[in-house]
Known about the structure:
By secondary structure, the protein is an all-alpha fold. It has helices spanning 2-8, 11-28, 30-40, 42-53, 61-73, 80-107, 121-165, 169-174, 176-188, 194-214, 219-242, 249-265, 271-322, 328-346, 353-402, 408-424, 430-454, 459-479, 487-500, 506-548, 551-579, 587-623. Helix 4 crosses helix 6 and helix 13 (271-322) runs antiparallel to helix 14 (328-346). The N and C termini lie far apart (118 Å).
Amino acid sequence: MDSQENTQNLGTNESEKNVEQSAVQVETTDATAQQITAAGDGDNAADADGEHAQAVSYKTKKDVIARLKEIVANDETPAKDEVDHLKTTFYKLHIAEREARMREYIDGGGDPEKYQVVPDEDEEVFKSEMSVIREKRAKLFQEQEQEKQDNLKKKLDIINRIKAMATSPDEANKSYNEFKELQQQWKEIKSVPAENASELWRNYQLYVEQYYDLLKLNSEAREYDFKKNLELKTRLCEAAEKLAEEPDVISAFHQLQELHQQYRETGPVAKELREQVWARFKAASTVINKRHQQHFEDIRAKEEENLTKKTALCERVEAIAAEENKGAGDWERHTKLIIEVQNEWKTIGFAPQKMNVKIFERFRAACDDFFSRKALYFKDMKQTLAANIEKKRALVEKAKALQDSTDWKSTSDKLIALQKEWKTIGMVPKRLGDQLWKEFLGACNKFFDARNSSNAGTHNEERANLEKKQDIIKRMTALLESDGDDVQQQLQQLTDEYAAVGHVPYKEKDKVYDEYHDVLTKLHKKLNINMSRRRLNNFKNGLKNVAKRGEEALDNERGRLVRRFEQLKQEVQTYENNLGFLNASSKKGNSLIDEMNRKVQKLRDDMELVRQKIKAVDDENKEG
């Protein structure tokens, strides 16, 4: 009885103070309450599961379609995240297959402009199943929205009834059992529209606390109710604090929403403990909310980092694709570089959603442009190679038709003409080129061996020719030690003598050819070096006269030299590319390669001379 009187004597001021404190608590948790309500409705709850669903990896389009059919057959209502994940995965695989088919078509010699995309049966099945799922999700959403509106009406009715009970102490005492039943009903009613949740909860809490403040229960009953609520809220605080140890941040966040819902549905505790209990629960909630927020901030930061990396890879591929390809070697080298970049791309995760597709399209466009141009280049090259193969095969047939001839003079001239023609034909694939050359050389050797056998009486003459050539080689070797000004003239005379000497014994021809070629190469190198020195000295002497005409004259001379240097450099690259396609398996066949190598060395010596001249111009500029 005393407890009831004490309850009545709290007075209007005490009740108002209670209401103000409750309002402060509710306002403090407004943002949290909105999160709780949002987490309670169907879509967001489903989205929580959807985050785990994204962890599923699908290797083929059939796997994606199988999952869609499973959803439809089992009457599931999948999360939006899972549906988006299935859609993204399917079209990523679908586009990759389509591009692979197009690349195969182009590599096979197809015309890119005539390529047509073939309808995909899997895509039609995918669209059909997705249509069913979208209809189900739309229907579910409408049902959930209607349910929220119905729940809102029910909770407003409960608030009005509690408000009526809280208008007078007498009414509150009479309706205690009804009040407890209304509280239970409130707990059983779930989600309401998010925009009404906070206001709804504030009103409910306000009138529940007013009701308790006016209630004329005996002291023991009221203290028991407060004690029981304190135990429940303490356990909720402990559960919230334990969530800080949960490794799965997303799971911890959604569990927290459940705890908030239970906390709201639990009745009040003693006034002196209300602020303390709520502060504890709020502190635990803040830890989880911050971890949840940080988790998504880390994801966004990682996606931005991935975007930066992918942008850099796009720029690298675009730069590689823009480089000039002067031959097959350049195309293959650039292909390896692009494949390396593509492999690096695969190791980088997603970029931000609004940029993920755009950055991939940019990367794919640069790669496609390169490989399309490469396919066209090799298509043209195949046609050229095929034409060269046919030409060489024709020469092989002509040589074979002559290999058994006994018309030594006429046939020799014809075969020599065929050999010269052979050298004018461009490159062919190495393996086939070796085979054709072997057949061609075999037919030529067969004839010349037969001719040599028939001219056995000429061996003495050939031995004498060998001695003459060896003597010429010794005299050429002596020129290596000479520094006279007439070395060039003497060399020319010796080479003319060597060319005038007839055939040597067949078994000795390769050896004497190697000796002759070796010393000739050394002499050419020596003459080039000496000539370069004289030309450089003459240039430096003449440079003084150019300098007298002024700085502009020196700049013009330097520009001319730079252009000459680039021209020589281009010629060296051209010869080196051609050398890559040549092949020979005999000393005669090697003569063309040797001659080209001498030309390359001569060009390199000229490049070095031009470089020295440019340096001389620069030195003259500094002195001026």
